[in-house]
Design brief:
The chain is of the alpha/beta class. It has helices at residues 13-22, 34-37, 68-74, 77-83, 97-109, 123-127, 139-152, 166-194, 199-208, 214-224, 236-252, 258-272, 285-290, and strands spanning 3-7, 26-30, 46-47, 60-63, 88-91, 113-116, 119-120, 131-135, 154-159. The chain has two domains: 3-163, NAD(P)-binding Rossmann-like Domain (Rossmann fold), CATH 3.40.50.720; 169-290, Orthogonal Bundle (N-(1-d-carboxylethyl)-l-norvaline Dehydrogenase, domain 2), CATH 1.10.1040. 50% of the residues lie in helices and 13% in strands. The chain has a six-stranded parallel sheet with strand order 3-2-1-4-5-6. The chain has a three-stranded mixed sheet with strand order 7-8-9. It starts with a strand and ends with a helix. GO terms for molecular function: NAD binding; NADP binding; oxidoreductase activity.
């Protein structure tokens, strides 16, 4: 078992860190809000006071933070010096491919390795180790973190090649497709309701035959039951951030994405109404409101 650093204990970071500790790994944990990391002490984690203090020279450190700016704040010259030659930084955050490429170059210059390993999972799936990981970067670095990803959250690991930013492109594609699927389901269930068809019957037929994946089953149920607000696992603000990154990546590669523009507007509308506690599935309220439904 390994002694590793873990930076970022949010809704997703907490179950992953818990799983690593339960698998027997030793963790040095840093979170900007220290109190959120305290539950991990009971499982044997050492809570430290800075990102640099979480690092073992030549070792492995995971980061899972909200956005590009937060990650750039962590990867300081002191961070890179502490990681040292041969150290591996596995970034599990959903960030811009441009940022991933720039950070990879900084690590390489200092003799360490940057691996992109964004998480495909909501917290409950991560806790059950039913998530998926996309990884890209140096082959040796990927091999060093593979078992840790399995121990932490992943049922499957998909290798996206040696270009560090590839896994982040993949993550953005995945999140775009989830958002698109939510819009598709919202419009479909609205069509059912407006024409006197029981939307639940439509949901059951579709999600047990043609559209059986967990996105359709799980998010479809949330849309059907109007589960848009409250203590949610993935905030609408983070969803908007991710779709912003999708559109930025599309602009950089001259890729028209009209559906991405639509779901971006849906999320922007949710947040414009001050719904800070909304899950990103609340983008489905756009189709409901447009049709005069609630």
């Amino acid at each position: 078992m390994q002694k590793i650093g873990f930076i970022g204990i949010g809704n997703l970071g907490l179950p992953i860190a818990e799983n690593l500790l339960k698998a027997g790994h030793q963790l040095k944990v840093y979170n900007r809000t220290r109190e959120k990391a305290l539950p991990l002490e009971k499982l044997g984690a050492e809570i430290v006071d800075s990102p640099v203090a979480a690092i073992e020279k030549g070792g492995i450190v995971f980061t899972l933070v909200s956005d590009d700016a937060a990650l750039r704040d962590i990867v300081t010259p002191a961070f890179l010096a502490a990681l040292g030659t041969g150290g591996v930084h596995a970034s599990m955050s959903t960030i811009s491919p441009v940022t991933a490429g720039e950070l990879a170059a900084l690590h390489k210059k200092e003799g360490s390795i940057y691996i992109a390993s964004p998480v495909f999972a909501r917290p409950e799936a991560a806790a059950a180790k039913m998530g998926n990981a996309a990884i890209s970067g140096d082959a040796a670095g990927k091999e060093r973190i593979r078992q840790l990803l399995l121990d932490g959250f992943a049922k499957n690991i998909f290798d996206m090649g040696t270009k560090p930013e590839n896994a982040n492109v993949m993550k953005l594609i995945g999140n775009f497709m989830i958002a698109g699927a939510m819009e598709l389901m919202a419009e479909s269930f609205v069509l059912a309701e407006k024409n006197g068809l029981d939307a639940k019957a439509a949901y059951e037929l579709l999600t047990t035959t043609l559209f059986t994946g967990p996105i359709f089953r799980n998010y479809g149920a949330m849309i059907l039951n109007r589960e848009f607000e409250g203590e949610r696992s993935f905030k609408a603000s983070l969803g908007l951030k991710d779709i912003d990154l999708v559109l930025e990546t599309a602009r950089n590669s001259y890729t028209p994405m009209p559906i991405a523009n639509l779901v971006h507007q849906r999320l922007l509308t949710v947040l414009s109404k001050g719904r800070r506690d909304a899950d990103w599935v609340a983008l489905a309220t756009g189709a409901l409101n447009d049709a005069g439904l609630k």
